[in-house]
Specification:
By secondary structure, the protein is mainly β. The protein has one domain. It contains one helix and five strands; from the N terminus they run βαββββ. The strands form two sheets. The chain has a three-stranded antiparallel β-sheet with strand order 3-4-5, with no helix packed on it. The protein has a two-stranded antiparallel ribbon with strand order 1-2. Strand 3 and strand 4 form a beta hairpin. The protein is elongated and about 45 Å long.
C-alpha cells in the first residue's frame, strides 16, 4: 500500500473544513483483527492565494491528532484536533 497525494483547489474565502485521520490497511479484512484509530473535527481558516496546505497527523494508543499546515511556513492553521488516550474504534464502528 502506497501513500497517495490528493489535491483539491479551494476558494480563498473563510471556511470550515472537516478533517479526518484514520488507520487503513492494505487488506481491509485486517481491520477486523487489528486496531483502527480515528480522529476528526472541524477547523476554520481562510486559505491564502498561491499557498499550499497539507494535512498532517499521528494516530496511536495514547494520543491522536490531525491538523492542517501551511506547507511553506509549517505553521498550523487554526488548531489541532486531538484525542488524549486511545482513539481506537470499537468492533462495530470499523
Amino acid at each position: 500500500m502506497e501513500p497517495r497525494v490528493i489535491e483539491r483547489n479551494v476558494p480563498t474565502v473563510a471556511g470550515t473544513f472537516t478533517i479526518v485521520g484514520r488507520t487503513h490497511y492494505a487488506a481491509p479484512i485486517l481491520e477486523l483483527a487489528e486496531k483502527v484509530y480515528r480522529v476528526s473535527g472541524d477547523v476554520r481558516f481562510t486559505p491564502q492565494a498561491d499557498h499550499r496546505y497539507i494535512l498532517r497527523g499521528s494516530l496511536d494508543e495514547t494520543h491522536s491528532a490531525v491538523w492542517i499546515e501551511d506547507m511553506g511556513t509549517g505553521e498550523i492553521v487554526d488548531r489541532k484536533i486531538e484525542v488524549d488516550g486511545s482513539s481506537a474504534l470499537g468492533f462495530f464502528q470499523k
